Amino acid sequence: MNDPSTIRRLYGRRQGHKLRDAQAHLVETLLPELSVPETGPLNAEVLFGDNRPLEFEIGFGAGEHLAGQASARPEHGFIGCEPFLNGMVGALGHVRDRELTNVRLHLGDALAVLERLPDASLDRVYLLHPDPWPKARHAKRRMVNHGPIDMIAAKLKPGCEFRLGTDDPTYCRWSMMVMNQRRDFEWQAKTPGDFLNRPADWPETRYERKARIKGHEVWYFRWKRTEA
Ligand SMILES: C[S@@+](CC[C@H](N)C(=O)[O-])C[C@H]1O[C@@H](n2cnc3c(N)ncnc32)[C@H](O)[C@@H]1O
């Protein structure tokens, strides 16, 4: 596993385009330093050695949003999860280039990390351009569903935000339907068109940029965790 060509063979081919030597080297050297521990309960002390506020990104893609938020708030700790190795390489590159010390990464399922955090421990959760699963028969696979949203609700501190971005009209409508049924979240749209404009503190993601180039509308949702 320590040999870059082995890493490339094991992950690069199976999960995306082949890793170059420099990318495999990054995975070999920087990822172990930044990885969320594989087992045991997690909190800010375990991850960062102090009691700082935590933010969590589900499926960070190539990591540009995670890195942007982490450099904007160096006093917060950021946990990012992404099962796609080529995306992880992107995030590692941003962490290295921006010399970020407040990011921890997990190559795998975000929910498996989320469930190990204490309840009411997160200051923000991001879900940006989740896989849309557009067919009705696949709707149960959408991240915006009762099980995952129950977990997000449990882990967010009351008064803190869950952010969702999507350019998929079905996902947009679905998310409004699922979230409007909940009493534990309050939609933060101040005006009817509010969710059409990206807030200034919301860095653009790669997927979002591609969607805009294709001429798609993008919707930006912010829900506040209530006390309910
Ligand atoms: C359409 S991409 C969007 C990536 C990125 N957020 C962006 O906006 O550019 C959806 C991402 O979610 C990731 N993903 C899907 N299920 C996940 C899960 N259970 N945990 C973490 N990431 C997941 C996928 O690997 C993929 O990279």
UniProtKB/TrEMBL annotation:
Pfam families: Methyltransf_4. Its EC number is 2.1.1.33. Pathway: tRNA modification; N(7)-methylguanine-tRNA biosynthesis. S-adenosyl-L-methionine binds at E57, E82, D109, D131. The keyword Cytoplasm does not apply. HAMAP family: tRNA_methyltr_TrmB. Belongs to the class I-like SAM-binding methyltransferase superfamily. TrmB family. This is tRNA (guanine-N(7)-)-methyltransferase. It comes from Stakelama flava. The lineage of its organism: Bacteria, Pseudomonadati, Pseudomonadota, Alphaproteobacteria, Sphingomonadales. The gene is trmB.
